[in-house]
Write a structure and sequence with these properties.
This protein is an all-alpha fold. It contains eight helices and no strands. The protein has helices at residues 3-21, 26-33, 37-50, 69-81, 96-107, 113-122, 139-153, 185-189. The longest helix is centred in the first third of the chain and has 19 residues, at 3-21. It starts with a helix and ends with a helix. 12% of the residues are buried.
Length: 190
């Protein structure tokens, strides 16, 4: 869940607590706050047992980060250096698998690929598309290839009026162009 999502959920629970204090019943709370009836009843139960504090957030769920704040700062610095500085010279792209491997090498902590992805996002990094094209790209060659490929693929279609939209009765063969499939059948039926 995003930070904004957690903040909204916290706000909704606090609004529910205010409504419970005004003796509004859980079904009405669910309707007003546009939450499930189950959530409203659970929140009401928590509120009855512990008041407003029981509905306060206990922080993000999930396991704790296995890297200390100092290690996270170092990891961010390593990521800023780029993949080539750490042995990946074939391209300049950090992948989640590479980040997981880097964490294992530098900090001796095992992270899954999905865990490394979440950690990288937490550090403020996000997937990027290259801002520039490759230096070797030949625009003229790309244009020529596109034109040649389209010339091969593009075939003239049937004229719009030559087909029927009816599923039960096809267009009359008499109205078809001479070179269209089934055009000769009109002469045979006469």
């Amino acid at each position: 869940m995003t930070v904004a999502g957690r903040v909204r959920r916290e706000s909704v629970r606090m609004q529910a607590a205010e409504l419970f204090e005004q003796e509004v019943k859980p079904p009405e709370v669910a309707r007003r706050l546009r939450v499930s009836l189950k959530s409203a009843y659970q929140w009401h139960q928590l509120w009855r047992e512990g008041g407003v504090g029981a509905l306060a957030s206990r922080g993000p769920s999930g396991s704790r980060c296995r890297l200390s704040e100092r290690c996270l700062e170092k990891l961010a610095a390593y990521l800023e250096q780029g993949p080539a500085a750490h042995g990946w010279v074939e391209d300049q792209a950090w992948t989640a698998a590479r980040v997981a491997m880097l964490i294992g090498r530098k900090f001796h902590v095992s992270y899954s690929v999905s865990g490394a992805t979440r950690l990288v996002h937490r550090l403020g990094f996000s997937p990027q598309v290259p801002a520039r094209r490759v230096a070797e790209r030949d625009e003229q060659a790309v244009t020529t290839r596109k034109e040649a490929t389209w010339a091969e693929v593009e075939v003239p279609g049937r004229p719009a009026g030559a087909t029927s939209a009816s599923r039960t009765r096809q267009a009359s063969p008499a109205g078809r162009p001479e070179d269209a499939p089934g055009a000769g059948e009109a002469a045979h039926r006469s």
